Amino acid sequence: MVVTRRAVIFALTFLVAVAAAAVTIVLATSGSKEADTFTLKGTLYVAKCMSSGYGDLLPGAQVEVTDQSGEMLGVGAVELSDAVTNRKSGETPDLKAICTSKFSVANIPTGRKMYGVHVGNANRGVIWKPESEAKQGFELSIGS
Q: Which superkingdom (predicted)?
């Protein structure tokens, strides 16, 4: 079999075109995936956090994000409480204190009607927001 110079050039040109198309597809796909997600952030305020009854809301507690159809969109965790009001360093814990904790759940897909956040046991319920508000963050208050 005789391979002509013209056939070699054609084959190389074809391979370069296929490689360029593959690189373009990969770059287009990876760029759009990031734009189609967001990180849902929130703050959890727990009143009387120093008393019993809130063990399901301690740091490490699971944070679940779902959409209006009940599909699980992401899971995160409550972070270590960064502030306890009504308490000074070295003071006896105030049982009426309000603990403030943060949470975030990355890679939440966009384009859903409603986003629900649930923290703690099944009795706590779900807080719902439309996408525009969910992107601004959630503030959950528990206790009185």
A: Bacteria
Sign (positive or negative) of CA dihedral 83, 87, 91, 94: negative
Q: pTM of whole model > 0.70?
A: no
For the chain, the domain total comes to 2
Mean pLDDT in the chain? 79
Which range of residues forms the domain containing residue 96? Answer: 36-142
The reply to whether 58 and 100 lie within a common domain is yes
